[in-house]
Specification:
Helix content: 40-55%
Number of strands: 5
CATH topology: Rossmann fold
Largest sheet: 5 strands, mixed
Radius of gyration: 16 Å
Shape: globular
Structural class: alpha/beta
Number of helices: 4
Distance between the termini: 51 Å
CATH class: Alpha Beta
Order of helices and strands: EHEHEHEEH
Number of domains: 1
């Protein structure tokens, strides 16, 4: 079945917590929606790395690929490193992606999390949980 591919890019870390967060987030996303074939990869210190993640999407039966950075803000990785690995010029969010079978599909690059009311809600939840757990 042809669907949309979603490559979730985490930062990566020498500690396993970062990898677990990204892979678990990808799994949770997959449980919430069946519109995407979701895989995760990492910029640094974890595998698969971004080139491996991109290569892994090339053999999938997808009609478009959206790349989503699991980062809070626009930093060097989001603004320069990831677009470069995707073959996008700085400031571009749309390109093309060639599958192993030669089919060329749209490539879309999403923004990082950024300022969002859901993030504020999550941080308030974390504060309340900490008070409840440690007070």
């Amino acid at each position: 079945m042809c669907k949309q591919g979603l490559l979730l890019i985490g930062h990566g870390s020498r500690l396993n917590h970062n990898k677990e967060l990204a892979t678990s987030t990808a799994e949770l996303m997959g449980k919430k929606s069946d519109e995407f074939l979701i895989k995760s990869c990492f910029m640094e210190h974890s595998t698969p790395n971004v080139p491996e993640g991109i290569a892994g999407m090339k053999h999938e039966d997808i009609e478009l690929l959206v790349v989503v950075p699991l980062f809070l803000a626009k930093g060097i990785h989001v603004l320069q490193d990831i677009p470069e690995l995707l073959g996008l010029a700085a400031g571009e969010f749309k390109g093309t992606f060639t599958l192993d079978n030669g089919k060329v599909i749209p490539l879309i690059y999403a923004d990082p999390i950024g300022i969002d009311p859901l993030l504020a809600d999550l941080m308030l939840k974390n504060a309340r949980n900490a008070i409840q757990a440690y007070l």
